[in-house]
Amino acid sequence: MSRVIVALLTGGLFGLGLAVSGMMNPARVLGFLDFAGDWDPTLAFVMGGALLVTVTTFRFILKSPRPLLEEKFYLPEKGDLDAKLLGGAVLFGVGWGLVGLCPGPALVAVVAEVWPIVAFVAAMLVGMLLHAVTFGRSGKT
Amino acid sequence: MENFAPLSGLVGGVMIGLSATLLLLLSGRVAGISGIVGGIFTKGEKSLWRVAFVVGMLFAAVGYVAVVGREGLVELDVSLPLVVLGGLLVGFGTRLGSGCTSGHGVCGIARFSKRSIVATITFFVVAMVTVFIVRHVF
C-alpha cells in the first residue's frame, strides 16, 4: 500500500512540475528545439532545475544500502552502448521533433482536451505495445 | 525569445527533480515516464504503483487546469498524420532506447550513466535536426 501512495504523490508532483514548467505545451518544446527560429530556452531551465536536484540527491540516496520502503533499488542494469539504445534514441528524437511531445508531457496534456493530443497518446501506447510484442522484456528501463 | 519563461521553467524543473528524488529515496525506483507507462504493458511486472504514478500525474494536471484554465496551455499545430507518426515513434523509440527525457535525461544523467548521457545527447540532436528540416528546409 505504501508504495502505491508514494507513486500517487510523486506522480502528482511530477505532473505538477510538468504543468508549471510549461512543458505540456508542445509549442514551447518545439520553441526550444528550433534553434534557428525564435528560440525559447525555457526547456534548458526545466532540465537544469531538475538536474540541480537529482545530481545532488541521487549520490547520497544511492550510497545507502536500500530505499526506505523497499528491499532494494530497482536501477537499470545495462551498462554498454548498443544499437537498441542508439536506434531507440534516434526514433524517439524524430518523433519528439515532429510533434514536440515526449511521454510525460503528452500524458498530462491530455487533460487540456485538445483532441490531437489524445491521438498522440493513443499512437504512443500502440508504439509501446508494438515494442512489447516485438522485443519483449529485453528493452525495459 | 518572446515566450521565454525561465522562472516557471526552473520552479517546475525543481519539482520534477524532487519527485524523482522522493521516488528513488522511498521506493528505489527511477522516475522514467516511458518505463513507468511501458512497464504497465509488460508481462510479469507488478504494475499497480506504475498505474498510481500515472493517475497522480493526471490528477495534478486536472488540478492545474482547474486553477489556471485551458487558455493557451497546449498549442499543437501539426497535421494529424504527423501527430500519429510522432506518437508511434516516441512510444516505440523510448522503449527500444530504454528511456526518454525523464529516465535518461533527468535520472540517468544524475547517476552519471554513460548510456543515459549518450541517449540524451542523441535524442536532443536528432529532435533539433528534425525541427530544422520540418521548419526551415521544407
Report on this model:
The complex is a heterodimer of chains A (141) and B (138). With 141 residues, chain A is mostly helical. Chain A contains six helices and no strands. Chain A has helices spanning 2-21, 26-33, 42-61, 83-99, 103-109, 115-135. Chain A is globular and about 45 Å long. With 138 residues, chain B is mainly α. Chain B is 74% helix and 0% strand. The longest helix of chain B has 24 residues, at 114-137.
Shape of chain B: globular
> How many strands, what sense, and barrel or not for the largest sheet of chain B?
none
Give helix % range of chain A: 55-70%
Based on secondary structure, the structural category of chain B is: mainly alpha
- According to DSSP, the number of beta strands of chain A is 0
Span between N and C termini of chain A?
A: 23 Å
Number of strand elements of chain B: 0
Compressed to H and E, one letter per element, the order of chain A equals HHHHHH
Average predicted confidence as pLDDT of chain A: 94
Key words describing this protein structure:
heterodimer; A: 141 residues; mainly alpha; 6 helices; 0% strand; B: 138 residues; globular
Summarize the structure.
By secondary structure, chain A is mainly α.
What's the helix and strand layout?
The complex is a heterodimer of chains A (141) and B (138).
Chain A: H1 2-21, H2 26-33, H3 42-61, H4 83-99, H5 103-109, H6 115-135
Chain B: H1 6-27, H2 33-40, H3 48-68, H4 80-96, H5 101-110, H6 114-137
Helix pairs in contact in B: 2-3, 5-6
